[in-house]
Design brief:
Layout: H1 12-18, E1 32-35, E2 42-45, E3 50-51, E4 53-57, H2 63-69, H3 71-83, E5 88-91, H4 95-98, E6 99-101, E7 104-105, H5 107-123, E8 126-130, H6 142-145, H7 149-167, E9 173-180, E10 183-185, E11 193-197, E12 200-207, H8 215-231, E13 238-243, H9 247-250, E14 261-262, H10 271-279, E15 288-289, H11 299-308, E16 315-319, H12 325-333, H13 339-359
Parallel strand pairs: 4-5, 4-16, 5-8, 8-9, 9-13, 10-12, 13-14, 15-16
Antiparallel strand pairs: 1-2, 2-3, 6-7, 11-12
Length: 364
């Protein structure tokens, strides 16, 4: 979304307490997220306190640009998300901003990512780091898309080695999210990407030449390769993968992941159907709904879905608006809010209203 005028800052007290520039005290002793005994959910280490992931996807296609051009804005956004009750944020560092070649990373980009880790640590927000994003069609790397599958996987593994090396040691890392909404296979004519929305494509295929391999086998081989790349540098963080709402496509892959992360957008009047779909992702692993939002329903239906889903999920991530919530509220009060503005504001208001219920101790 476009930004309207200068961004108003309304959480000065939160800024002070969280220790961002201009504040005095930073959050000390951030704990790392680990699996709870029996893989029933998550706990903080070393306290053992229950952890619920409650937050947002942030700057999905613009993160690295924001870190490069307006770090202060990122600091403000994280302080606002924390003040609204967020415990987790899912980020998408775009691959073309991280890699300059098949085995070469941009050192400055990785330093910017480290600055984001510091912001997250100060705010007390844990990060779910989604990898291999090539969302902006105009920014894609021709050399990368021309690679055969083996070399493409090698480059993807190098990406994850670079990210894990930069992030290792930070307690802010909740999880590495291997890729957003992958399909195992496709035909060469299909190309590597799918899921187009305007000038963006949010999904990728892992193989265009599967041969005799099944989709489950491709997922197994690929996850094993990416996990090994991460664990060579960071064995502490958890590993997951963003999943389309097709449980049958991903069930066999779940055994290799620390937790399951489906993306679910409930439809108006069909909340029980969405809960049944969520139930099909209950494979003996914790569930974090990596994307949800009142996109196909109103706020009340989304509320019902979130509250009912607590019997299965241990985390939920919506989407943080581009405009500050106070700015959206001001537009509403002035009678100038568009339908688009009202939709985003309805999510933020819902997020704040039920946060206490969502982060209370749940199943497990």
């Amino acid at each position: 979304m476009t930004r309207r005028g200068s961004r108003r800052w309304v959480h000065g007290l939160a800024l002070l307490l969280l220790g961002f520039p201009g504040g005095g005290v930073c959050a000390a002793g951030m704990e790392r997220v680990k699996l709870a005994p029996g893989k029933t959910g998550f706990i903080l280490h070393p306290s053992g306190h229950r952890y619920i992931a409650w937050g947002h996807n942030y700057a999905s296609a613009d993160l690295m640009e924001r870190l490069a051009k307006d770090l202060a804005r990122v600091e403000r956004d994280f302080a606002e998300m924390k003040a609204a009750g967020a415990t987790a944020v899912r980020i998408h560092p775009e691959m073309p901003r991280i890699l300059t070649g098949p085995d070469k990373a941009d050192a400055q980009a990785l330093e910017r990512l480290k600055k984001l880790l510091a912001i997250a640590e100060k705010s007390g927000i844990h990060l779910m780091i989604t990898g291999l994003a090539c969302y902006k069609i105009k920014d894609r790397m021709a050399w990368y898309d021309s690679l055969e599958e083996r070399d493409r996987w090698n480059t993807q593994a190098f990406f994850w080695e670079s990210i894990a090396r930069a992030c290792a040691g930070s307690p802010a890392v909740f999880a590495y999210d291997l890729v957003n909404e992958p399909a195992a296979t496709g035909a060469p004519a299909d190309g590597w990407y799918m899921g187009r929305m305007g000038d963006l494509e949010f999904c990728q295929r892992l193989s265009l030449n599967p041969g005799s391999r099944s989709g489950a086998e491709i997922f197994r081989q690929w996850i094993e390769r990416m996990t090994a790349a991460i664990c060579a540098h960071d064995r502490a963080a958890l590993i997951t993968m963003g999943m389309l709402p097709f449980p049958g496509a991903y069930k066999d892959a779940a055994v290799q992941l620390d937790f399951v992360s489906p993306h679910l957008y409930p439809k108006a009047g069909k909340i029980d159907d969405e809960i049944e779909l969520l139930r099909q992702f209950d494979w003996g692993r914790p569930i974090v709904i990596g994307e949800t939002f009142p996109l196909h329903c109103g706020a009340e239906d989304e509320r019902e879905f979130l509250l009912k889903s607590r019997g299965f999920a241990q985390g939920w991530l919506g989407h943080w608006p581009d405009e500050a919530p106070a700015q959206l509220a001001g537009l509403k009060q002035a009678g100038k809010a568009t339908i688009h503005d009202a939709l985003w504001l309805s999510w933020v208001e819902l997020f704040q209203a039920i946060g206490g219920q969502m982060t209370a101790s749940q199943k497990g």
